[in-house]
Design goal:
The complex is a heterodimer. In chain A, strand 3 and strand 4 form a beta hairpin. Chain A is an alpha+beta fold. In chain A, strands 2-1-5-3-4 form a 5-stranded mixed β-sheet, sandwiched between helices. Chain A is globular. In chain A, helix 3 runs antiparallel to helix 6. Chain A contains 6 helices and 5 strands. Chain B is an alpha+beta fold. Helices cover 28% and strands 26% of the residues of chain B. In chain B, the strands form 9 sheets. Chain B has a 7-stranded mixed β-sheet with strand order 3-8-1-16-13-14-15. In chain B, strands 11-20-19-18-12-32 form a 6-stranded mixed β-sheet, with helices on both faces. In chain B, strand 23 and strand 24 form a beta hairpin. In chain B, helix 13 runs parallel beside helix 14. Classes of the chains: A alpha+beta, B alpha+beta. The interface between A and B is large, with 56 and 67 residues.
Chain lengths: 166, 722
């Protein structure tokens, strides 16, 4: 794309209404703007991480209508009218989601950069499949990279949380 | 010893912030009026240019300033050798080299304007291969090398201008001893370029407060970065404040900063805070990588299979700039560590790094040693096979024991290597017979701390709240540094963990520190924390002799100035963590695909301070090692990185990482706090050679280059079959 067209696009913003962490939201952006940028820059929800910017590392994973999706390559037009949940909305009011507690208990995280995304992928899995098999866990996390490499602990934490999922 | 705290459950201080998303990394930080920065980058691996035309870009919306090489000449950046222009002014040496920096109101505006900067390049002949770099008539990539700043040391002169660094180690007389050997073996290996691969991209935010420059950086060694910036930009140290907060992974790559330098003139030009978050494609193609290496090893043994002489020649692709390497030799720090952990009476090791027009070589977890270990531990297995000696047995005959000399000429005490081999033999025995297509391999090794970074200082104080505060310049890149320091101080004082708070200070607040790296935090900075805790204990005892620690802390809290001590520590040289790795592989003869089975890692780690973090380092090291062994290669074609996204550059995910059995040997105590050693750079070193050895055991195919792709295994199977 040429530089001019990028700026033209920025000029053609629209009001997009959607729900974030239970609250209705309206933002004026170009409809092609990735959801991640709106979450981080407009709504100041910094917990969703900016990683590879191509939907390949999973650090920016959020829920749209309960499904885990990467937000860096998801255009805003596609979430209009939909419900988005970020890591900030995972636990509800106060306290930790059982998954978050299990990750703390298992030491499943080191630098932490992948964790928001992994937790959101795992939460979507547990919502559908409360007691997932190893294969179901690895499939659900196939697009979440963790360089610190505590994969075994992540799997244990997901299994531990599975039983306690509300 | 009372181990009340060391045995207490480990709760990561920042654990909760990281699972709730509330941890703030540099890319999350925003300052009032902040501008975003994007670069115009070279599309050519080697080219000259006469001018950079910014006129069109300057008129574009949102643009506040554009800097080109002309604005920063002759300023160059680097950790030791400052050979990388902040922005190129007449010549680019790699694809992705920075030519102009644009500061604009939004990232989209900055990126759009960066694309509108016009540069007329004249392509030059380029070098993509280490051998070509030293060939007669090769283009000279750094004709101005004599002008380069070399920090804290004098750079030697070299016989060829494309040499970045050159180092030779000798002890005994390898040549003479080799001539007496009953058997001499020589093997060559090639290790592909890989990346450290932290998920958090490099990021930096700079702003001015009067004369004082502030930089918030992902750099894991902020004091070192301050020195580098000060030298490169002629800024007095007291006008530079660098803060490294929560770092989203390092793996060696975050010791090097690039953007932090050019942001400062941009902040000055615009009068605004400026921030860069590196695009991941640029992380892969234009920051720094683990050096690609070609290694030839030659070892002589006597009739009994005992090593009498060892020679190594290692050539590293240093890439376009040496800036990302921190050491004096300008070859990756572990360049000497080939047959480390063995008794080597005579050795000669020569390493050279050369300039090419590829991605700069830099540090990645156990720099240099990973390359050497793949070569050395493959070499030992090849020798064992040729001699008809079991691989464990050949290693036993040569494993270093107390009082013996290693390949660096150092005498060992408390060698855990025989114990490591006993464990490896036990693992082999327990596995019993195997079915066809399954193979087993082992590798061993050892790691010492970097000799130049063995000292540390922290400050401890008791404030009004009666809490013991540890002030350190050490940041946490994920290894759990602050939790370790908290546990060490609480253990030494005999107080609950909640009575100790660890505070990371900026370079203006905290005592000087070398930074995170070289596995030094627990043994070295932890040693300073322990020394400080002991001094604090003595001060408290003076304040209220014989009273309980709680009473003493209360009294200290009531004093107007509290109580304050400085803890310093210097770790002994020649200290080793040893390790062994045993893997089982299942090789598909139809496809060459290698599947990992049962894997065990045995680590001699001394006293364990933080068991969860320590095991986490070993698990993570193993995963990183298997990525490099089987999957990862930063591929470059004619200077262009062709794996510039995480779809093409595949790092291990859940499905790729098998469970790892971790065995800790704690009886060989180290010089760190309470006898601690380190664990950060052990596991990733041994994985690749263990896998290569297991593959030969399984199907008789020897792969001598990394990564061990299915294609290479299949080619070997076909060759053996034909």
């Amino acid at each position: 794309m040429t530089s001019e067209s990028r700026l033209d696009r920025a000029a053609r913003s629209e009001s997009i209404v959607f729900t974030v962490n239970g609250r209705p939201c309206a933002v004026d952006v170009h409809p092609d703007t990735p959801l991640l940028y709106v979450l981080r820059n407009d709504l100041k929800l910094k917990g969703t991480r900016f990683g590879c910017a191509s939907g390949l590392c999973g650090a920016c994973t959020v829920h749209v209508d309960g499904r885990a999706v990467t937000s860096c390559d998801l255009p805003m037009w596609s979430v209009a009218g939909h419900t988005v949940t970020t890591i900030e909305g995972l636990a509800g009011e106060g306290g930790l989601h059982p998954l978050q507690q299990a990750f703390v208990d298992e030491g499943a995280g080191q630098c932490g950069y992948c964790l928001s995304g992994i937790l959101m992928s795992a939460a979507a899995l547990l919502a559908d499949t409360p007691s997932p098999s190893l294969d179901e866990i690895t499939a659900a996390l196939e697009r979440n990279v963790c360089r610190c490499g505590v994969h075994a602990r992540v799997i244990r934490a997901i299994r531990a949380a599975g039983g306690k999922h509300p | 010893m009372d181990r009340a705290i060391l045995d207490a459950p480990e709760v990561r201080i920042e654990g909760r912030d990281k699972v709730t998303g509330s941890a703030r990394y540099v890319g999350d930080l925003v300052r009032e009026g902040m501008l975003h920065v994007a670069y115009t980058r070279s599309p050519y691996p080697h080219a000259r240019f006469a001018s950079v035309d910014t006129r069109r870009a300057e008129t574009m919306p949102g643009v506040h300033a554009i800097l080109t090489g002309a604005d920063v000449r002759p300023r160059r950046l680097g950790r030791r050798l400052q050979d990388w222009p902040l922005l190129a002014w007449d010549r680019v040496r790699m694809v992705g080299d920075r030519v102009a920096a644009v500061a604009a109101g939004t990232l989209a505006e900055a990126e759009a304007a960066a694309q509108a900067v016009d540069v007329e390049y004249q392509e030059l002949p380029a070098i993509f291969d280490v051998d070509a770099s030293l060939a007669p008539g090769a283009p000279i990539l750094h004709p101005e090398a004599a002008d380069y700043t070399f920090l804290r040391a004098t750079r030697p002169t070299f016989e060829h201008p494309n040499i970045q660094g050159h180092a030779v180690h000798e002890h005994g007389d390898a040549r003479a001893a080799m001539a007496t050997a009953a058997h001499v073996f020589e093997h060559s290996f090639e290790i592909a370029r890989v990346v450290a691969g932290a998920l958090e991209p490099h990021a930096s935010l700079a702003w001015l407060e009067g004369e004082v420059v502030h930089v918030q950086s992902t750099n894991k060694s902020p004091f070192r970065l301050r020195d580098q910036v000060s030298a490169a930009l002629d800024i007095p140290l007291d006008q530079l404040v660098i803060d490294s907060g929560v770092i989203g992974g390092d793996f060696g790559g975050k010791g090097s900063s690039i953007d932090d330098f050019v942001l400062i003139p941009l902040a000055r030009r615009t009068g605004r805070p400026v921030r860069v978050v590196t695009r991941y494609a640029d992380e892969l193609r234009a920051t720094n990588s683990r050096h690609m290496a070609r290694i030839t090893l030659r070892t002589g043994l006597d009739e009994e299979g005992r090593i009498v002489a060892h020679e190594a020649r290692i050539v590293y692709d240093g890439g376009a700039y040496g800036a990302a390497k921190g050491n004096v030799a300008q070859v990756p720090g572990g360049w000497r560590n080939t047959l480390v952990g063995y008794r080597i009476p005579n050795a000669r090791i020569e390493a050279i790094s050369v300039y090419t027009n590829n991605v700069p070589g830099g540090h990645a977890r156990a720099p240099g040693q990973v390359q050497n270990a793949f070569a050395a531990e493959s070499h030992v297995d090849l020798m064992a096979r040729a001699l008809g000696i079991d691989p464990v047995e050949l290693r036993r005959r040569n494993a270093i024991r107390d009082g013996e000399t290693d390949l660096l000429g150092r005498r060992w005490t408390q060698s855990a290597m025989p114990a490591i081999l006993d464990h490896l033999a036990d693992v082999a025995a327990a596995r019993g017979s195997r079915r066809p297509g399954v193979g087993r391999g082992i590798a061993i090794g050892a790691r010492s701390l970097p000799a130049a970074e063995l000292d540390a200082t922290v400050e401890l104080s008791v404030g009004r709240d009666g809490i013991v505060e540890v002030l350190t310049g050490v940041t946490d890149q994920g290894g759990g540094a602050h939790t370790a320091l908290q546990r060490i101080v609480a253990q030494a004082l005999g107080v609950p963990l909640g009575r100790v708070r660890v505070r990371r200070g900026t370079t203006a607040e905290a005592p000087w520190d070398h930074g995170v790296g070289g596995s030094r935090v627990t043994p070295v900075v932890g040693g300073a924390a322990l020394a400080g805790a002991r001094l604090l204990r003595a001060s408290l005892e003076e304040l209220a002799p014989g009273a309980a620690i709680e009473t003493q802390l209360q009294q200290a809290a009531e004093r107007p100035d509290g109580v304050r001590v400085t803890g310093s520590f210097e770790h002994a040289q020649g200290f080793f963590s040893t390790f062994g790795c045993a893997v089982e592989v299942d090789v598909d003869r139809e496809t060459g695909h290698v599947r990992l089975g049962d894997c065990t890692f045995i680590a001699d780690v001394g006293t364990v301070v933080n068991p969860v973090a320590l095991r986490g380092q070993l698990l993570g090291g193993f995963a990183m090692g298997l990525g490099q062994a089987l999957m990862e290669e930063l591929q470059i074609e004619d200077g262009v990185v062709t794996t510039a996204n995480l779809g093409d550059y595949k790092m291990p995910v859940m499905a790729d990482v098998p469970p790892l059995n971790v065995v800790l040997l704690t009886e060989f105590v180290g010089d760190g706090p309470f006898g601690a050693k380190s664990a950060g750079e052990l596991a990733n070193v041994a994985v690749a050679p263990a896998i290569a050895n297991a593959i030969e055991d399984a199907v008789g195919v020897r792969v001598t280059s990394l990564p061990i792709t299915a294609e290479k295994v299949l080619a070997g199977l076909r060759q053996a079959g034909s």
